[in-house]
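Researcher: Here's my situation. A collaborator sent me these components and asked whether they could plausibly form a single complex. I don't have experimental data yet, so a predicted model of the whole assembly would be a useful starting point for our discussion.
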Amino acid sequence: MPIEVKNLVHVYMPGTPFEAHALKGVSLAVRDGEFVGIIGHTGSGKSTLISHLNGLEKSEPGAVFVNGMDLGDKGADLIAVRRAVGLVFQYPEYQLFEETVAKDVAFGPSNLKLPAEEIERRVSEAILRVGLDPSVSDKSPFELSGGQKRRVAIAGVLAMQPSILILDEPAAGLDPAGRREMLSLIRNIHDSGTTVVMVSHSMDDVGRCCDRLFVLNRGEIAFSGTPAEVFLHDEALHGMGLDVPECAKLANRLRREGFDIPEGLFREEEVCAAILNHLGKGGKQPC
Amino acid sequence: MLKGVTIGQFFPGDSLIHRLDPRTKLLATIALIAIVFVSQGFAGFLLIAAFVLACCASTGIHLKFLFRGLKPILFIVLFTFALNLFFQSGTTVLLQLGPVKITAEGLRMASFMAVRLILLVVSSQLLTLTTSPIALTDGLESLFRPLEVVKFPAHEIAMMMSIALRFIPTLMDEADKIMKAQKARGADFETGNLLQRAKAMVPLLVPLFVGAFRRAEELALAMDARCYRGGAGRTRMHQLRFKGIDALAALAVLALLAAVIALNAFHVW
C-alpha cells in the first residue's frame, strides 16, 4: 500500500481563540498505480491532508504510512519519503526562484545529492515530459507564460522521480484549453506507472481522470468510491457546496422521475446512449 | 511552522474594554504609562497593578498573555535591577563582599526600577491584546488628524500601517506555503552552518519578494480602480464615536491618577 492514512486529526493553533479543526479523523488508502481524486469545498481540509502525505505536517493522533514507513516516527527518513512522494502545491509557479528553467528543475534532484550527469539527464527528461520545448531550459522562468511556468514547476517535482505524485488543484486558474492539456499531461504521467493523487474541486476533472474518489467535508470523509458511485449522491454533495457533472445530474434526475436509466453514468456518451436506448425500447414516454 | 504567530497578539472578544473606542484606549494607555512614572512608591505600583489585572480579568483574556510580552525585555529588567543594586549609593549596608556592597537604598531603588519597567510593559500589553490592529490604526489616524494643519501626513501613515498589517498574515501564509513546497523538493532550512542556512533561504526569499511586488502592484491597481486619491474628503464605514463607556474609562483612569498622587503626597511606602 503506497499511502495509508489512519484516523488523522489536525488542529491549527490549538488552545487559542483561532483554534481550527482542519482534519477530524480521516482514514484512507491509496493502492499501487491508482489515480485517486480528493474533492472538497474550500476549507474542507484537502490541502492539510496532502501536506501530511509527505511529512510536511505532523500531528497526533493518527498515523500516515508511505510505502510502509510511519511518518509520525521520530526517526522517519524524510528524504526517502520526499523522494517517493512528489508534491505539487496549488499555483506551483509561484515557487520558482532560479535564474534559468534548467537550474530550477535541478533544485530537487540536487537536494537528493545525485551525481551531476544524473541530474542533467533527469532535468532534460522532465522538461520534455511536461511538454516543454528543450529551448526553454536556458530562459529565466520569469519570462515564461503562466501555463509554461506551471509546467516548469511540475517538471521540478518530476525530476525527483517520485513513485507517487500528489497534485493540489493542478488545473486551477488555467483556461479551458490549458486545463485539458494539463489533465492529459497528468494522465500521461499516470499511464507511465506513477500513482497519482489529485486534489480538485472540479467534479468534471476528477470524473474524467480518477479511478477512485474521496469526498472531504469539514475535515471528514463524506463519501468514497468510484466516480460513478460518488456521483449518485448529487443532492448530498450539493449540500457540501460541490456539484456533480451535468450529465450525472441529468441521469440521476431522470432515474428519480421513473425513467429506466442505469445507475452510475456520468460521461456524456454513456448518458446519451442510455437515453436513446430507453426511448428506442419504447419505455415510459415523458409527459 | 510559521503558523501560530499572531500579529499584535490581538484576542477577539466582546468585553467592556474590547468595545471601548480605540482612541480612548490609546489615550488611556498613554495616561497609564504616565501614572506609572508619577508613582513614587510601591503602594502606588500595587494600586496600578491591581487596576491592570482587574481590567485584564474583565476581558476574559488569560492573565498569562499579559505577561507574555515580558519575555523579550526580561534581560533589560534584570540588567537594570543589577545595575541599581550594586551601584546605588546608600548608607545602610546590608551585605558587603570586598568592594561590592548592597545597601538598603540600592535594593529599594533596584526593585522600584524593575517593577516600574514591568508595569510599563504589562499596561501597554492590555491595549494590543484588546484592540485589533485595524482599529488601532484608525484610532491613531483620528488622533493625529489635527496635526495635518502642519502637513503631518496622518492619513498616509495610517493607510501604510493598515496595508502593512493587512499583508503580514498573507505574506506569512505565502512564506509558509513556499517553504513547504521547497521542503517537498528536498530543501533543508534547519541544518547546516550560518552560511549554508543563509543560502538555503534563497529559494524562499526570491519567490516571496516576487510575490510581494506582484501583490503590491495588484493592490495599487485595485485601489486606483476604486478612485482612491488620498485621505481628503474620504468618508469611513466605521465612524469612531465616543460613548458612555469611554467617559467611564476616562473617569477610572483619572481616579487611578488621583489615588496615586494622594499616595505620593502622604509618602506611603
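Model: Some features of this prediction you could bring to your collaborator: The radius of gyration of chain A is 21 Å. Chain A has two domains: 34-58+76-226, 245-287.
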